[in-house]
Amino acid sequence: MRRNIILFLFCYFFSFVGWTDLIRPSFYEKTALPTLTGRVVDQANILDVETENKISAILERLEPNQVVVATVSTLNGKEIEEYALRLARFWALGEKQKDNGLLFLIAPNERQTRLEVGYGLEGIITDVWAHQVIEKEVLPYFRKNDYRNGILNGVNAIVTALSS
Q1: What is the pLDDT, as a whole number, of residue 93?
Q2: What's this model's pTM, rounded to 2 decimal places?
Q3: Is 54 a domain residue?
Q4: CA separation, residue 34 to residues 66, 82, 138, 149 (Å)
Q5: DSSP characters for 31-72?
Q6: Range with the poorest average pLDDT among 31-35, 75-79, 117-121, 145-149
Q7: Is the Cβ–Cβ distance between 133 and 115 less than 8 Å?
């Protein structure tokens, strides 16, 4: 009887996971994540140096909260939620005890953006608030390929929320 239960659980597990998931490298191992080089990481090269410096100066004033704006050239076929969470964890954004990091991620080639918020800031930056800011303040500019002003609007909304 015990052997049948173990065999059933074994078959049940592999019906969902599959053998290839056990032998192929995971997403985390095969996806090259950008290096955290500052408050703005523009891997997709959509911002000019002046804008990067301006955003960095704005975000510096938010300390001890650590807010980073990142653009990536590709999500490597992953959902933006998964990629943003992995990137925020990889960079260890925010103070460990407070979990007060925030990642503003833009993937222009996939036409996606996300605010990934640490638990310490979720009382201020809720999912509903983040969605509204992206929809009303960021995407109207992105739709016109004006990434500079879309990102600046998003950053200004974040600053307003975290400063009040």
Answers
A1: 95
A2: 0.81
A3: yes
A4: 17, 15, 23, 23
A5: S-PPP--SSEEETT--S-HHHHHHHHHHHHTTTTSEEEEEE-
A6: 31-35
A7: yes
Tell me what percent of the chain is helix, strand and coil, each rounded to the nearest 5.
50, 15, 35
Q: What strands lie across the sheet with 66-71, from one edge to the other?
A: 40-42, 66-71, 101-107, 112-117
The domain containing residue 105 runs over which residues?
Answer: 32-163
Nearest to 138 by CA among 118, 153, 155: 153
Tell me whether strands 40-42 and 101-107 are parallel, antiparallel or unpaired: unpaired
Q: How many domains does the chain contain in total?
A: 1
Closest CA to 62 of 93, 26, 28: 93
Residue 24 is classified by DSSP as: S
Backbone torsions φ then ψ of 27, nearest 5 degrees: -55, -40
In a domain, 6, yes or no: no
Mean pLDDT of the chain: 87
Tokens of 54: 């301006």
Q: How far apart are CA 10 and CA 53, in angstroms?
A: 54
